[in-house]
Amino acid sequence: MKDIEFLIIGSGPGGTSAALKLVQAGRRVLMIERGDFLPKEAENRDSQAVYGERRYRTSERWIDQEGEEFQPWMHFHVGGNAKLYGSAHFRFREADFGEVPYDEGMSPAWPISYSDLASYYDEAEALYRVHGNRSMDASEPTGRPYPYGPLKDEPAISQLKRGLTETGISSFPLPVGVSPGESSGGWETDLAHFDAYPDPSLSKADPEAVALDSLQGGRFELLTKTQALRFLHRDGQVIGLEVEREGQREVLQAERYLCSAGAIQSAKLFLNSGDDGAFANSSGQVGRNYMAHLCSAGSATFKEAVPDKFAKTFGTNHWYQPDRGGCLAGSIQTQGKWDAAQYELEPWTHLDGYDSRQLAEHGLEFFFMTEDLPLPQNRIQLDSGGRLHLHRELSNRALHQQLVDEFGAALAELPTDSLTLRHYRSQLMPVAWCTHQCGTLRFGLDPTTSVLTPDCRAHDLDNLWVLDGSFFPSSSALNPTLTIVANALRVGEKLATL
C-alpha cells in the first residue's frame, strides 16, 4: 500500500477498533501483527492441547523480579490475546474514573470522565455483541439496555443465583460477547470450549470475528508475521518503524503511528526505540505502573452433580460498589466449565477421595478480581541483551483474600434447595498470568507524570498514539477490554478528522 496515512501496530481490540473508525472515514490504514492467524483445528477445543501443551502460547521466556524465567500467558495471533479471552465485557463505573482510596494507597483519577466514553461504550457493546441484563446489576453506570438479552442460565447456575439471593448476595447475568449459533468454515458454536479457548466458529466476539471482515478492502491492509522492533524518530516526529518480516528487516513509513501491541509489548517497543529508554520518556514513566488485576481462580465442589456445559453466565459486584460508597474488595464471575483434563492439570484443585472426572462433574469454577494499584516499581525493563524483565509487587492482597473468603462463606451458607458445598479452594494467579495488563504508558494532563495526552498521543511526539491498555492510570476491578475498545473508538474518531 502506498501513501500510508495510519500504521497500526497490533491487531487486538484497541488496534482493530481504531482501524474501523479510520477505514469507515476513508483513511488508508496498514496494520501489522507479529503473529499469524490462529489455525482453526480440532486442538482449539482440546483442553490438553490448549492448557497442557500450551499450544497457542508464546514460547518466549521473560524474567521476574527474583531473576527466574517464566513463560508468560501471552498469545501472538491476529486478534491478539483476545483470541483466548473469556469475552466478559464491563463498563467501568463512574467512580473508577476518579480517585478511589484503598488502605494500601490511592487509585488515581483519569484525565477523562465516564461521560467522555459513554457513547463509545454503547458502540463497543454493539460491536462486541454483548449479551446481558443491565437492570440486574445495581452498580451499572447506565440504564441503557445491552444490545442483546442475557444468555440463558443452565441448571446449576440458576440454583446458585437463587440460593445466593436468599442469603442477600446480589448477582446478574454476566455480560458476554458472543453470537450463539454462529458458524464459520464448517465450525459450529461450542460453548463448552469457550472461556480461554480459541473459537474456530468465530462465535466469540474477538477482534478477528467482529472487525476483520469490515476492514478488508482497498484502504486497509494487514501484514502478518511482521514484528515491530523500534521507532525511528527525529525532531519530535516518528519517521519510520523498523520491523522484521520473514527474517528480513525493513522500515515502514506512515504519516501517523498507532501502537496497540499490548501494555507489555508496547512498553518494550518504546524502550527499544531510544538510547537508555529515553524515547517518549521525558516523564520517566515508560514501562512503569504495570497492573494486571489481583486475580484468583476458585473451585467449588458440590454434593450435587453440576452438568452445565456453559457456566459463564454468573457475575456479582456485591463486593464492588465504587459508585455507592460500598465495598471495594472486587468482582466475581464464573469461568467456563472445566473438564477433567483441566482439573488434572491444576494440582491445587485436587482432593482426597475425588478423581479429576468427579471434580469436573461436581465443580463450578470462579474468577476473582481486585483492583491492582499502579506502583511505580512495578515495571517493564530490558536488560543489555534485550530480554524482558517484569517486576511486580502485589497490592491489596488482604482485600483480595477478603473477597475470596467471604464468597466461600456465602457458598457454605446456601439454602437447602440450592447447591450443597463440600469443598472450596482458590489459587492466586502468578506473575506469568499477564492477561488484563495495563498502565505502562499512562495518559494524563501533566507531561511530567504521564506518557500520553488525554487523547492518547505521546506528549513528546506529534504523530504517535497508543490504544491498548497501556494508557490506563488505574485498573478498576472489572474486565478491561470494553474500556480499551471504547477508548479506541473515541480516539479513532478524532484521528479520522485530522
Reconstruct the topology from this structure:
Elements: E1 6-9, H1 13-24, E2 29-32, H2 47-52, E3 62-64, E4 69-70, E5 100-102, E6 105-107, H3 114-127, E7 130-131, H4 155-166, E8 172-173, E9 176-177, E10 183-184, E11 187-188, H5 207-215, E12 220-223, E13 226-234, E14 237-245, E15 248-252, E16 256-259, H6 263-272, E17 294-302, E18 314-316, E19 331-334, H7 340-345, H8 356-361, E20 363-370, E21 379-382, E22 388-391, H9 397-412, E23 421-428, E24 464-466, H10 481-495
Parallel strand pairs: 1-2, 1-16, 2-12, 3-22, 16-24
Antiparallel strand pairs: 3-4, 5-6, 7-9, 8-18, 10-11, 13-14, 14-15, 17-20, 17-23, 18-19, 19-20, 21-22
Helix pairs in contact: 1-5, 1-10, 3-10
CATH class: Alpha Beta
How many whole angstroms does the radius of gyration measure? Answer: 22 Å
Q: What is the name of the CATH topology?
A: FAD/NAD(P)-binding domain
Shape: globular
- Side-by-side strand order of the widest sheet: 8-18-19-20-17-23
Helix run count: 10
How many runs of DSSP E, i.e. beta strands?
24
Low-confidence stretches: none
| Average of per-residue pLDDT values | 96
Helix proportion: 10-25%
- Structural class determined from secondary elements: alpha+beta
Reported for the largest beta sheet, the result is: 6 strands, antiparallel
Q: Tell me the domain tally.
A: 1
